Amino acid sequence: MKNHQILLKKCFQCFRMKLLMGKRSLFIMDKKVHFKMHKVKKQWVTIAVTGMSLGAVSAVSLGTNDGVVQADEHTDATVAIPDITVDTGTVSNDTTAAQDPTTAVAATNDVATDQAAPTATFDLTTDTTNTVVANAVDTAATVGTDRAATTTDTTATNDTAVDTTNNNTTTDTTTVTDRAATRERRATGARRGPTGGRRATPVNGNTNNANNTVTVVNNDLPATNNVVTDGPSHIKTIDGKQYYVEDDGTIRKNYVLERNGGSQYFNAETGELSNQKEYRFDKNGGTGSSADSTNTNVTVNGDKNAFYGTTDKDIELVDGYFTANTWYRPKEILKDGKEWTASTENDKRPLLTVWWPSKAIQASYLNYMKEQGLGTNQTYTSFSSQTQMDQAALEVQKRIEERIAREGNTDWLRTTIKNFVKTQPGWNSTSENLDNSDHLQGGALLYNNDSRTSHANSDYRLLNRTPTSQTGKHNPKYTKDTSNGGFEFLLANDIDNSNPAVQAEQLNWLHYIMNIGTITGGSEDENFDGVRVDAVDNVNADLLQIASDYFKAKYGSDQSQDQAIKHMSILEAWSHNDPYYNEDTKGAQLPMDDPMHLALVYSLLRPIGNRSGVEPLISNSINDRSESGKNSKRMANYAFVRAHDSEVQSIIGQIIKNEINPQSTGNTFTLDEMKKAFEIYNRDMRSANKQYTQYNIPSAYALMLTHKDTVPRVYYGDMYTDDGQYMAQKSPYYDAIETLLKGRIRYAAGGQDMKVNYIGYGNTNGWDAAGVLTSVRYGTGANSASDAGTAETRNQGMAVIVSNQPALRLTSNLTINMGAAHRNQAYRPLLLTTNDGVATYLNDSDANGIVKYTDGNGNLTFNANEIRGIRNPQVDGYLAVWVPVGASENQDVRVAPSKEKNSSGLVYESNAALDSQVIYEGFSNFQDFVQNPSQYTNKKIAENASLFKSWGITSFELAPQYVSSDDGTFLDSVIQNGYAFTDRYDIAMSKDNKYGSLADLKAALKALHAVGISAIADWVPDQIYNLPGDEVVTATRVNNYGETKDGAIINHSLYAAKTRTFGNDYQGKYGGAFLDELKRLYPQIFDRVQISNGKRMTTDEKITKWSAKYMNGTNILDRGSEYVLKNGLNGYYGTNGGKVSLPKVVGSNQSTNNDNQNGDGSGKFEKSWGSVYYRYNDGKRAKNAFIKDNDGNVYYFDNSGRMAIGEKTIDGKQYFFLANGVQLRDGYRQNRRGQVFYYDQNGVLNANGKQDPKPDNNNNNTSGRNQFVQIGNNVWAYYDGNGKRVTGHQNINGQELFFDNNGVQVKGRTVNENGTIRYYDANSGELARNRFAEIEPGVWAYFNNDGAAVKGSQNINGQDLYFDQNGRQVKGALANVDGNLRYYDVNSGDLYRNRFHEIDGSWYYFDGNGNAVKGMVNINGQNLLFDNNGKQIKGHLVRVNGVVRYFDPNSGEMAVNRWVEVSPGWWVYFDGEGRGQI
């Protein structure tokens, strides 16, 4: 006691007992703590005798009643100085000198410098059962928040704690605080200097742990993000809050977990465990409205602002309905912001300046107008006073009128209100089920027939009538593709091509396009010759018959091969059923050979690891070129390597997402993003090790341009760069492709044989395919190697040698049989792989003596030194093309078409004449906008017609020539490529399009015709963009196929679509204008009964104005589900149908909405006897009614009026309501048996969860075996030899792939295979090996040679990286590695070494091994202290190994040879060794 008497000598007499009436803090641990009061000279002192275990130490507030014990004299208190035992040392930058303190340093609360409150003697046993662990150092330690409420009881409801007894989340728990709040921090008075102040007095705790040490650190430092498992395996505590965490680290949100005795709810915002019993409606005034009502009829100045009238002159309505952008004529206006004056018919004002659907929207309006400089200085919420908000609205109205007077117009106000409307969830895509994975523009809407919108009703809208399902049922004859075909809803306004009037209009438009020259006053050589039919699998297949009928009737394309080729037309038909359908219907257009395209892509263009062998290049085609299949029935087709929207657009989107804008969907991006992406794209294209662009482009063209039985189509973007001005910059492949094109004219003729030669080996990153493909053409007159041919055969024919293995080495010679016609003949290269690229030798003289000779059997032999794999910017493997020496430079092996009709009745037959054709797709999506008119595409085409002829081009496919919309809702309208148009007849007439003027187009057509090249137009009958007029329709949110989307918010709801034109455009001038003449000239076209609808086309209804009745639906327009303003449960405000329903204006009698049961449902929530009720404003209770509060939460009141809780079946639909009555929407519920149920956007149970649109209903395909089938947009399945979809891990054609339980190929995501995390490429689906992959936005993983996600510490490419147990790379965070704390850079992920770093306000130092140092260390001459979590101690008095020390609050350096004021008025001197003198 004597020591205590000395230590507690009183220094100040000014303290008063009232200063000690707050709670005080003492250090406690997880064992029983005894507190005893000792009276020393009438000074009450608290002595803590503690049995401490090594671990986290927290502070607890103790006391009786309000925490005060009265004393008879002024009270002083002790200063508790924690003891700490640490090792000391100097930090070395040597990576072998890792810091390893022998004593662990555990985090505890900060050093107490507050006065200890006098308290009565009592015992306290700490109980950590329900304690939230905020800093996960020791789960047994009590850790609390950093502040306690002043003078209030320390017991607080903590809604994140789990009651381990009954598993209910609503159990109260004791929240322990580490710092007591006092009414005043210190007594006022003079503060003494170093020579005479109060000394800090340590309280020596009695330590009972093995090392007799305890560490105290500042708990104000943020807790680390350690995760502590608590309760069920998926419930984890993170930073003191509980979450439901999946095995892959995903945090569940809006998730109900039912457990015995109750349920837990993890909220929709953060996923944090939340208190279900907290009533939400109490937070927003306790008022509400009917669940499907958007309004509470909030209005101001009803008498002045009342509607002047209800005619069209008085109110701007859409089809008689109010919208959020409605303007109206009020009875009076506040003229100049000064005086109410009778309005004139020109004085219209926005409805939203005086009326709002809800209080929340009124608050948003006031806040928005404040930002525009038109409001008050206050910010409002739905809890604000209605009177104050109304007054603020009047002030806004006044300022609006003042500005109208200043500017003399209301144009600015229209823009302001439109912009405000866009901010509200009910009026933007937030309430449209926006989902970019579901539709190219985020979602689709189907128009429904409804009496409320009878003007938009249709007898047609027959969806998904693709070639495979033209009658509405899948045609069993076509088995290559078992899907429903392409998406019905592709883009923009989806035109109803099943409507006979629309079908006739499509014919009218086709005729206009084909005859654009003569219709606009020019000559026939300014007309088009053929068409490309866009998006065949997305339109009604009746159009294919209509187009074919037109070409047969007008051009006689079925009367001879010559006429067919003169009017060469093609289909963009991706389904593998389409070629067979086209053949059966004797179509006048060529189908594409997509199987061949896929073979070229996956055998040659893809990177190693995503590449197949070369075997598919022979037989994966419409026309099998294998030895056994080459003489089978042939089908006419066209082939291509790339296209304007294939193998380009997706790559640019991926570059933008990966390197420029991670938030990009890939479907829409800015011109600036595109420019940056092309810098990367073009650089990558010119590199040997490509990250994005395609490999082996010349090899793919070498095969395609020399193939028999196909018409090759060359893509502009492979000759020139996709970006930049037209034809301004050649691609790296230009020389090789041009040489192939010109060489094709001289040599590509006769029969063809292809073979894979297994004569070598190679291994690139574990990929060891090494087959060498050879393709031989024998020349005219020789169909096989044994044919002797004719005199002209000798100088024709060619051989192509291709490998896709850059590490290829031959083990034996390669021998190619060039055929009997070529015995003992000299051959020279046309193309030859070099170290740097591809050398070209068009003429014999170019070959510089490089010659090889066939033997007496016609065999051409190559040894291992002549053929070897290489990687350069053009070839990844090997490529060579050899041709006979001796052909003249003007040799032309092409064959002219016959004037005879095909006996088969087919328009096109595969033959030598058709093989002689070459189509040039003469544009790129990404051409730059011109800087001057001389750069226009069509001008350049006219200037270069002779060049195209020299390449052997016979048909030139021009870009779509329509003036583009610039609405930016999809890529097409950003780059303005012609596919996104508003007026289909505006072919560069209202203004120049991207490619030039109408005159430029006609000049280009004329120039092409002058050199014998036909011109192909682009016919785009599927969609039309951004029409100028609004129309109210009844709509339902659907998937791409027109099936109602689960949880559709818009479901048979009124919606304002942009579907109208007004007849004042070129549609008005030319729509239907040619139908009567066409019917007179070609009646057979109109006699056909169309397959899909059983009707003939009509000429009675000519479409000069578009409207919704001619459409299936539209993309979501960012209008929202409530843009057409609702009135009550089922009603809408408007003047349609002879009924007037106006928004209720206070002070007037105009509202027709007086019955709450049929109106907006305004009222108030009531709590009574343990139940909740809802009372309408008319005094009646809501029964059998859905009600929503002002925040949009939905409740249900049953037939007794009580609020529903738990599961509830209503009108046959199942719902779930939380304990506070809030309906679960777009969320999941897991029942006690572990079953998980999904409740959609409307709260309706969907036991299947969120499902992607199901492409088909059958996983079996008995006709298609051992083949891939496309079942959606980049969605594939594979059918095995039994015709059944495979599942799980599969090796197919040398690729390692994975298919989910439904047989859908996994692409672009990870799969947990028996505990191993793997990733499958987003494009090919191939297992990722030896590379990084972005598995989620911003989350990276690395997959090793086995394809497994690596975990833990890894050295990759010289970087020390760390991956967590889910394989996710740690960046910008701490990781515990083998007991050491390490930090990894936020950008590179590289390990920090030999440096300080601040993390969440705390400083750490990482040594040469990257480990956070702990304990006493010397760094750069400074003596510093770090706690057991590596956090630097600053500004605290601590006892280190029995010695009191102090560490500077700024530098953290130990105090030496100086006085320190460690607490107001208390000074301590630290000697030369840093020892405190107390």
Q: Can you offer a commentary on this structure?
A:
It is a single chain. The chain contains 25 helices and 79 strands. With 1478 residues, the protein is of the alpha+beta class. The strands form 26 sheets. Strands 29, 31, 32, 35, 36, 37, 39 and 40 form an 8-stranded antiparallel beta sheet that branches. A hairpin with a 5-residue loop joins strand 78 (1466-1470) and strand 79 (1476-1477). Helix 6 crosses helix 8, helix 13 packs across helix 14 (671-685) and helix 19 packs parallel to helix 22. It is globular and about 110 Å long. The protein starts with a helix and ends with a strand. The model is unreliable at 1-79, 92-231, 292-298, 1145-1159 and 1247-1264 (pLDDT under 50).
List keywords for this structure.
single chain, 25 helices, 1478 residues
Please give the largest β-sheet: 8 strands, antiparallel
By secondary-structure content and strand pairing, the structural class works out as: alpha+beta
| Percent of sequence in beta strands | 15-25%
Distance between the termini: 17 Å
Radius of gyration (CA) equals 40 Å
| Mean residue pLDDT | 81
Please give the share of residues in helix: 10-25%
Number of helices: 25
By DSSP, the count of extended strands is 79
Low-pLDDT windows of residues: 1-79, 92-231, 292-298, 1145-1159, 1247-1264
Shape: globular
Quaternary state of the chains: single chain
